[in-house]
């Protein structure tokens, strides 16, 4: 039996991990393997994904649409040799990935026969300004989608969902558009019951390496962070950031791992489910910015001011 692949795409911070976590939590007995790609050197997403019934494979420090394409195919081959095989494979791309390139790679004859790409899901922040859909990366992520899931409707104003649906239609995207409140999407949409049919032909566009546009900067520390100082630091960095996420302890609550998220200009901090990983630095944060906008020296200077004793 072929193992269908669900490819989850969407811009930086759109809500992909939230969707993947939700569907893993509602696997209803299906054996699901998750492959997670973080653009940065530290794969925060793999730590934020809980409960993949068939394990989480983490691919970090590059993008599976460009520099890690071989790693993706090798990972899929390994998953397909598992006994028992997974029922489904979910691939979460990084937010800078051009899924057209991944779709092209998944057309590898062996992978196509054994693990056909069944569904491409694009997660889209409902509050994204419609004009942003003209951006080449957004367009590419939408164009290959079978389903577009509108996320963060709870944070957007009332008309956002309707506006976004119109903007998607204006891009002539043939996908089904659904609401995904806190990542919830009917699993029947994502995992069709019968997968014997051949996957629909897909037309990937021209190759556009994501790594030409964004860069990722990692910052780690062996000391906990001061929350008020972190707030100041993020205030300074925010105009330059496309995305940031991290795990760290704070001076205010030592021994407790906090999950930091910065997406679409909004920063959040929440207690993590897990204790800090043994041997890991006490603070690990990944920052993503357009190329040349933020230097490592500037980032380090701002972030070092957040740790105790500085
Ligand atoms: N309020 C609200 N927050 C959401 C929703 N979906 C996602 N978020 C939040 O948005 C932030 C980014 O979500 P992620 O799921 O990590 O986004 P992502 O697309 O995986 O991010 P990258 O992989 O870094 O591109 C997190 O703080 C989530 O908790 C939603 O429907 N409502």
TrEMBL record:
Q: Quick one: a GO cellular component term?
A: cytoplasm
Residues annotated as coiled-coil are: none
Q: Which SUPFAM superfamilies match?
A: Hypothetical protein YjiA, C-terminal domain (SSF90002), P-loop containing nucleoside triphosphate hydrolases (SSF52540)
Keyword Hydrolase listed? The answer is yes
Q: Which domain of life is it from?
A: Bacteria
> GO MF annotations for this entry?
hydrolase activity; nucleotide binding
Is Cell division found in the keyword set? no
Question: Catalyzes what?
Answer: GTP + H2O = GDP + phosphate + H(+)
Q: Which parts of the sequence belong to the CobW C-terminal domain?
A: 214-307
Keywords noted in UniProt: Chaperone, Hydrolase, Nucleotide-binding
Query: Function, please?
Result: Zinc chaperone that directly transfers zinc cofactor to target proteins, thereby activating them. Zinc is transferred from the CXCC motif in the GTPase domain to the zinc binding site in target proteins in a process requiring GTP hydrolysis.
- Assigned protein family: Belongs to the SIMIBI class G3E GTPase family. ZNG1 subfamily.
User: In its UniProt entry, what is this protein called?
Assistant: GTPase
Species whose genome carries this gene: Bradyrhizobium nitroreducens
């Amino acid at each position: 039996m072929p193992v269908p692949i669900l490819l989850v795409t969407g811009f930086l911070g759109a809500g992909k991990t939230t969707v993947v976590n939700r569907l893993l939590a509602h696997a209803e007995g299906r054996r699901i393997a998750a492959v997670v790609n973080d653009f940065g050197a530290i794969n925060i997403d793999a730590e934020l994904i809980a409960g993949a019934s068939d394990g989480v494979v983490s691919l970090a420090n590059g993008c599976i649409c460009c520099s890690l394409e071989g790693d993706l195919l090798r990972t899929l081959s390994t998953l397909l040799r598992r006994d028992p095989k997974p029922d489904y494979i979910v691939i979460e791309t990084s937010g800078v990935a051009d899924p057209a390139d991944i779709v092209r790679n998944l057309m590898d004859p062996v992978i196509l026969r054994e693990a056909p790409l069944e569904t491409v899901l694009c997660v889209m922040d409902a509050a994204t300004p419609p004009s942003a859909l003209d951006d080449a990366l957004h367009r590419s992520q939408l164009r290959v989608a079978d389903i577009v899931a509108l996320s963060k409707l709870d944070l957007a104003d009332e008309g956002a969902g309707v506006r976004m649906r119109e903007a998607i239609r204006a891009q002539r995207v043939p996908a089904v558009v659904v609401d995904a409140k806190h990542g919830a999407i009917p699993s029947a949409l994502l995992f069709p019951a019968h997968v014997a049919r051949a996957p629909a032909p897909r037309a990937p566009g021209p190759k556009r390496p994501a790594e030409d546009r964004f860069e990722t900067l990692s910052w780690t520390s062996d000391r906990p962070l001061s929350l008020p100082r972190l707030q100041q630091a993020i205030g300074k960095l925010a105009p330059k950031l496309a995305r940031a996420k991290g795990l760290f302890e704070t001076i205010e609550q030592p021994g407790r791992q906090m999950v930091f998220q910065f997406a679409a200009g909004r920063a959040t901090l929440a207690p993590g489910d897990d204790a800090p990983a043994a041997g890991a630095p006490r603070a690990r944060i990944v920052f993503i910015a357009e190329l040349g906008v933020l230097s490592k020296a500037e980032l380090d200077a701002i972030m070092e001011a957040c740790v105790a004793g500085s």
